[in-house]
Specification:
With 578 residues, the protein is mostly beta strands. Helices cover 3% and strands 49% of the residues. Strands 2, 3, 4, 5 and 6 form a 5-stranded antiparallel beta sheet that branches.
C-alpha cells in the first residue's frame, strides 16, 4: 500500500509542479499595426549564452522586418529595430546564429517581384550591415530558411522561375560576405514548397512538401560536402492525404523532422527521425491525438533534448502547445498548454539557453496581432513517459494458410496505465486494420486475419505523464498474392527490369532486385500520369522478386510502372494490346 501511495503522490506532485515552471506571457511588441511571425519552416528565435534574438515582420512601416534581443535570458528586452529598408513589403524572416554573428533572410518585393534578401550583424545584434539581394530573376522567390555552421551559411527557398515552384539553394563560405550561385534542388512537374534547412558540420539537410505524388508529401535530401553536391530526393511521408509544413533540426547524427498531416481525418502533428544522419529513417510517430486541428509545428534540439511547439484548436480557439523528448525523440512528455488567451495564439518557435526553454509566438488577444514570449527556466517536462513495451512475442502461427485468429502478447511496461496496439496489412502502418488505444491488459486477440498478406504490429505504453515511443516492429503472415521471390543469389544493386511479355494482352511479369531489406513501392500509371494501381508497398528482404500485373480490366494503351525505395527510383514503359 505504501508503494502505491508513493506513486500516486509523485504523480500528483508533478502534475501540480510541472505547469508552474512556465513563466507568465511577456508581450514583446506594442503597436497598433500587425506584427507577424513567419511560417514554421524556419526559425524566428535564436540564442547564444544568455542572449536571445527574435525577428518578425511588422505592418507599422508598410511591412518590414523587425528585430529585438534580450541579453539576460529573457528578463528584459531591447527596443524594436527595423532591419529591412525602403518602402517595399518584406515578409517571412528567418534567423540563424553562429557565435556573435547573426544571419537573417526574408523575401522582399522592392524589385517588382518577390526576391530573397539577407543581412547580418557581427556583434550579436548591436549593429547591422546593409541588405544583400540573394536572388535575381523576374519570378517569385520566397519563404527562405537559413542555417549556419561556423562561417558556412546555407539558404533554401521556393522559386517559380521554372514554370512551377521548385526548391533552390545557395551558400556562403565566408560568413555571409560573398555568395555562390543558385542551385536547383528539385525537378518535377508539380510544386515543391516551404523548404526548411539545418546543418551539422559539412552535412546539410533540407525538407519540404511536394505535390508530385498527386497529394502533398514530405520530401528530404542532403548534402554531405557542405552543399557542393546533393543526394536524391527521399520521400518521408507516404499517405493518400496531405502532409505539409515540415521543419527539420539536427543534433550530431540524429535528424528530426515534424510536419502537419490530415491522414487521421483532421490535422495532427507527425514526427520521424533518422539516427544515421539521413541515410535511413524510422517510422512516422503521431505526436497529437485530439479531434481538433493541430497545425504549424516547429522544433528545436539541444543534445538529446527535442522541443516541439505547435498551434492547437482543441480548446475552442488556437492556443500554443508544447512537448519535449529527453532521449533524442524516442519517448515524449505529455502535451502542455502554454497559452490561455481570449484571442488566437499561433506560429510558435523555441530555443534553449542552458536549462531554460524560450518560446515566441503571435497573438491577437490585444485586439491586433502582437509578438509574445514566455520561458520555462528549468525545461523540466514533468515525470517521464513509460518506457516502450519490451519483449514482443511473435504469434505462434506467424505464417498461416487460411483466415485465422491470433493472440498478440507483450510484456508490461513500468508504470504503464494503458497501451495502444497497431496492426497494419501489407504496408508499414499506412494501412492500419487494428488501432486500439483502450488496452489495459498485455494481450489482445485479433480475428479474421487473411492469407496471402503480410501483417505488421507494434505497441506503445501510456501513463499520466505521456505516451512512449512505439515498440520495435514485428512482421508475420505470407506474401501478398502475385509476389514471389525468385533465385537466391547475392545482389549488389537495386534494379527494375523491363516487364515480360511486352507488349502483352492479359498479364505481364515485372521483376526487380533489392540488395538489402527495403520498403518497395511498385505503382502502375497511365499515359497521363494518373495512378492506376499500387502493386505493392511494404518492406521485404533482399532478393530478386517477381510480381504479376493483370491488366484485363484496363484498355489497350501505354502504361508506366515505377519502383520506389528510399534509395532508388526507376520507371519503365509497357504496352497493353487487346
Amino acid at each position: 500500500m505504501k508503494k502505491y501511495f508513493f506513486i500516486i503522490s509523485a504523480i500528483l506532485f508533478w502534475t501540480i509542479l510541472s505547469p508552474a515552471q512556465w513563466q507568465p506571457d511577456v508581450r514583446l511588441t506594442n503597436d497598433p499595426a500587425q506584427s507577424y511571425m513567419s511560417n514554421p519552416n524556419k526559425h524566428c528565435i535564436a540564442s547564444s549564452g544568455n542572449v536571445l534574438h527574435v525577428v518578425w515582420h511588422d505592418e507599422r512601416s508598410n511591412w518590414n522586418i523587425y528585430y529585438k534581443r534580450s541579453t539576460d535570458a529573457g528578463t528584459t528586452w531591447s527596443a524594436d529595430t527595423r532591419l529591412s529598408t525602403g518602402s517595399s513589403q518584406s515578409h517571412e524572416s528567418g534567423i540563424a546564429l553562429s557565435g556573435s554573428v547573426l544571419h537573417v533572410v526574408w523575401h522582399d518585393n522592392r524589385d517588382g517581384n518577390w526576391e530573397i534578401y539577407y543581412k547580418r550583424s557581427t556583434d550579436a545584434g548591436i549593429n547591422w550591415g546593409s541588405d544583400t539581394r540573394l536572388t535575381n530573376n523576374s519570378f517569385q522567390s520566397s519563404t527562405a530558411s537559413i542555417a549556419v555552421s561556423g562561417s558556412n551559411v546555407h539558404v533554401v527557398w521556393q522559386d517559380d522561375r521554372d514554370g512551377n515552384y521548385e526548391i533552390y539553394y545557395k551558400r556562403s563560405t565566408d560568413g555571409g560576405i560573398n555568395w555562390g550561385t543558385d542551385t536547383r534542388l528539385t525537378n518535377d512537374t508539380s510544386v515543391s514548397l516551404y523548404p526548411s534547412v539545418t546543418v551539422s558540420g559539412s552535412a546539410v539537410h533540407a525538407v519540404w512538401f511536394d505535390g508530385r505524388d498527386g497529394n502533398y508529401e514530405i520530401y528530404y535530401k542532403r548534402s554531405t560536402d557542405g552543399g557542393i553536391s546533393w543526394g536524391a530526393d527521399i520521400r518521408l511521408s507516404d499517405m493518400p492525404n496531405i502532409s505539409e509544413l515540415a521543419t527539420i533540426a539536427i543534433s550530431g547524427s540524429i535528424v528530426h523532422v515534424v510536419w502537419e498531416d490530415n491522414r487521421d481525418g483532421n490535422y495532427e502533428i507527425y514526427y520521424k527521425r533518422s539516427t544515421d544522419a539521413g541515410t535511413s529513417w524510422g517510422t512516422d510517430t503521431r505526436m497529437t491525438n485530439n479531434p481538433a486541428e493541430s497545425n504549424a509545428p516547429n522544433l528545436t534540439v539541444s543534445g538529446s533534448n527535442v522541443h516541439l511547439t505547435w498551434q492547437d484548436y482543441r480548446d475552442g480557439n488556437h492556443e500554443i502547445y508544447y512537448k519535449k523528448s529527453t532521449d533524442g525523440g524516442i519517448s515524449w512528455s505529455a502535451d502542455t498548454r502554454l497559452t490561455n488567451n481570449s484571442g488566437s495564439s499561433v506560429r510558435s518557435f523555441s530555443t534553449v539557453t542552458g536549462t531554460a526553454v524560450h518560446v515566441v509566438w503571435m497573438d491577437e488577444s490585444p485586439g491586433n496581432w502582437e509578438i509574445f514570449y514566455k520561458q520555462d527556466p528549468t525545461g523540466n517536462p514533468g515525470p517521464p513517459s513509460p518506457p516502450l513495451p519490451p519483449n514482443l512475442v511473435l504469434p505462434p502461427n506467424g505464417s498461416f494458410n487460411e483466415p485465422t485468429t491470433i493472440r498478440f502478447i507483450w510484456n508490461k511496461s513500468q508504470n504503464a496505465v494503458s497501451y495502444r496496439i497497431q496492426i497494419a496489412q501489407d504496408s508499414l502502418f499506412s494501412n492500419i486494420v487494428v488501432n486500439d488505444s483502450t488496452l489495459t491488459d498485455t494481450t489482445i486477440v485479433v480475428a479474421n486475419l487473411l492469407v496471402n498478406h503480410y501483417y505488421w504490429w507494434r505497441v506503445n505504453a501510456k501513463n499520466t505523464a505521456g505516451t512512449s515511443q512505439y515498440s520495435s516492429v514485428w512482421k508475420f503472415g505470407t506474401f501478398p498474392v502475385g509476389l514471389k521471390k525468385i533465385g537466391s543469389e547475392i545482389l549488389n544493386e537495386f534494379k527494375l527490369y523491363t516487364n515480360y511479355p511486352n507488349p502483352f494482352n492479359s498479364a505481364t511479369s515485372i521483376k526487380f532486385d533489392i540488395p538489402k531489406e527495403s520498403n518497395v513501392k511498385l505503382v502502375v500509371y497511365d499515359v497521363l500520369g494518373k495512378e492506376i494501381t499500387v502493386l505493392m508497398n511494404y518492406k521485404i528482404q533482399a532478393g530478386r522478386y517477381e510480381v504479376v500485373w493483370d491488366g484485363t480490366d484496363h484498355p489497350s494503351g501505354v502504361y508506366f510502372f515505377r519502383m520506389i525505395t528510399n534509395e532508388y527510383v526507376e520507371t519503365k514503359k509497357m504496352v497493353l494490346i487487346k
